[in-house]
Write a structure and sequence with these properties.
The protein contains no helices and 22 strands. It is mainly beta and 365 residues long. Strand 2 and strand 3 form a beta hairpin.
Length: 365
């Protein structure tokens, strides 16, 4: 898509990686009931990583499922089989029937939410998942090699849940007051939607590492996410200087999305298997209303034959020089600023910045 006359994408990306740590919300913290006796029962508590609206958090997590195993790695013995653990109104996690710590045996605990994710296959094998809807956050936790202490009242298995998916937000703006940028459609191309999740072997309460963070493999089934689709002229977007999140309207997905962590490529300028955002738009002189782009200088690959509005196509790579993959638990915010140079032969883009989850914001200028 890009030629010598096409927009350049300087990788000016400021990446702010917040600490991936176990935190709990003080207003909804799971407090052990000190009045219960030391009876050797297995009890649970849970926290999640820092999150924002729409994510599974310590506050809105009301249930999770647990598998537990004794034995060895090569010969595990099921101790808990997809047990549902639910939060009461007094913030106590309960399940039935109550299980008790086995004598002289260690237990490996695996937890996840929502309940429909892992299913009856359990967490010891790769878990197949389809993220095509983009609407669901999924979380997981591991507490391995746990043993009970019958002399301590309410000894708990405290799960720290990590987010398994990446989160995505796309914003659009134009900061040139002399221009009117009208957007008809926005889409993302070649996003893998299916893959296998492998639970980690180490505790998710520990610092993030290859042993404590789950891994996605075998990503497949590319899909084109339509973020905005104007079905009439009244649904077209007129950009302003304020970065605006593309909201879900009509047939467009828009809004915040949960996507499969995956490698990102942009090798053939928006063709083949490249991962990119495409914006169908026209650019006008704000005062006269004359169309400035596309024009006679626009390369054929940026023209949209058959467009009833005469739009052109802009393609923005999803990979940058700072990152070439979406990682789990990271929020990627793409801030597309569409302006122009004096000749209107090319399109310029805004300065990249990066906005838990962990937020990563990408702006083009």
């Amino acid at each position: 898509m890009m030629t010598s006359n096409q927009p350049k994408f300087p990788a000016v990306l400021s990446l702010s990686l917040l600490a991936v740590a176990a935190v709990s919300c003080s207003q909804d913290e799971d407090i052990p009931d000190s009045t219960q006796k030391a009876d050797g029962a297995i009890r649970f508590a849970a926290t999640t990583e820092l999150s924002r609206a729409g994510d599974i958090t310590t506050n809105n997590l009301t249930s999770f499922n647990v598998y537990a195993y004794t034995g060895t790695t090569s010969a595990p013995v099921t101790f808990m089989d997809n047990v549902v653990v639910s939060k009461t109104t007094s913030n106590v996690w309960t399940y039935s029937p109550m299980q008790y710590w086995p004598a002289k045996q260690a237990v490996d605990f695996y937890a996840f939410a929502p309940a429909t994710w892992v299913g009856s296959g359990g967490p010891l094998n790769p878990v197949a998942y389809d993220a095509q809807s983009g609407t669901e956050d999924i979380v997981y936790a591991v507490s391995p090699d746990m043993t009970g202490n019958s002399t301590t009242a309410n000894a708990q298995v405290v799960f720290n849940f990590r987010h398994a998916l990446s989160k995505l937000t796309v914003k659009l703006s134009s900061t040139n007051p002399d221009l009117k940028v009208v957007v008809t459609n926005v889409a993302m191309a070649n996003i893998m939607t299916k893959g296998n999740f492998n639970f980690p072997t180490g505790s998710t309460s520990a610092a993030a590492s290859a042993e404590t963070v789950g891994k996605w493999t075998d990503q497949n089934t590319p899909y084109a996410y339509v973020l905005h689709w104007s079905q009439s002229l009244s649904e077209q977007l007129v950009l302003t200087s304020t970065p605006t999140v593309i909201a879900a309207t009509g047939l467009g997905r828009g809004g915040q999305m949960y996507v499969l962590p995956q490698q990102l490529t942009y090798r053939s300028h928006g063709t083949g298997s490249d991962n990119y955002i495409t914006v169908q738009c026209s650019i006008y002189d704000a005062s006269s209303g004359d169309r400035l782009w596309p024009n006679e200088n626009t390369p054929p690959e940026n023209l949209l034959n058959g467009s009833s509005t005469g739009d052109g196509l802009l393609k923005f790579p999803l990979s940058t020089t700072r990152y070439s993959a979406w990682e789990p638990g990271v929020h990627y915010i793409y801030n597309l600023v569409i302006n122009s140079n004096e000749e209107m032969g090319t399109i310029e883009f805004g300065t990249p910045t990066v906005d838990t989850y962990i937020d990563v914001e990408q702006t083009y200028e």
